[in-house]
Structures are given as structure tokens and as C-alpha cells.
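can u pls check wat happens w/ 4-nitrophenyl phosphate
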Amino acid sequence: MVCLGNICRSPLAEGVLRHQAQQAGLNWEIDSAGTGAYDPGCSPHKLSQKVAKQFGVEICNQQCRQFVKSDLENFDKIYVMDEENFDEVKRISGNKWDASKVSLLMDEVYPGKHVIVPDPWSGSEDGYHKVYSMINLACERIIVKHATLAEKKITN
Ligand code: 4NP
């Protein structure tokens, strides 16, 4: 899960997808990073922590880091929160770029509609709630898609 600072959006997305994957019994390795990540090692934003906790998702132990080229090799799928960060992931990835692995997170809900998860950084708690519900919906779709593909594999 990738955003700009790895402070607000992508730590929430990491926590929510991990929570949902665990509930679905999926042993996925899930991580997040920022293309800028101005303060490596720092905790998620207090309001991201607060909103996540309200939904039973604990993200306080996650630590901010910068997106690196090798993430392209180390992960099967990279979800990006907006188009600027998509372009940055592409730039940082250089010769490791693989278009099939990288997409906007909200494409899981609205394919091809260029819907972004907006940056709540300097806004109020409402913005974090909006971001949480967008991320939660997209993560539900990821889990359902995986379950459908896994079922197809079993029946084929
Ligand atoms: P994020 O939000 O990309 O959702 O983590 C931001 C966090 C920090 C900054 C910008 C956006 N910043 O400018 O420090």
C-alpha cells in the first residue's frame, strides 16, 4: 500500500487489509510505504490510529518507510492511493517497473475511473473517516476477488 508520506492513508490501508486478510484466514504479507516518507520510522498519524482503533484495527506499531525499487520484486501487488504517487512508484521502480503489478487502490471498486483516496493530512477527523471507509471497501473487494479466483482454481 503506497501513498506520499506513509503517515495517513497507506498505514490505514496496510492495517485494514491485514485485519481483513487475517479474518479470512489468509496468510498474506502486507506492508506499506510512502514515495516521499519524510520521517522514516515514525508512527502513523494520530487520527489514522484513532479512526482505525474505532473499527478494531490496531496500527500503532507500524513504522513509516520509503518505497524502494525492490518492493516491485518483493511484493505480488502494489496498490497506490493517487495518480501522483502512481507516477512516483513508476519513476522509483525504474527498470523493475511492471505495470501488471501496480494499480490505484480504488480501481478495485471503480475500475478505470481514476478515483483517488484523498490526502487527509491537513484536514479534520472527518477526512480520516472518509478515507477509512474508501479503503475498507476496496480491501473487501480485494479479499472477495482473491476468494473468487481461488475457488475457480479449485473447480478448474
Ligand atoms: P499520506 O499523507 O500521504 O496519506 O501519508 C501525508 C503525510 C505527510 C505529508 C503529506 C501527506 N507531508 O507533507 O509531510
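Residues 3-9, 34, 38, 119, 121 surround 4-nitrophenyl phosphate (CB under 6 Å).
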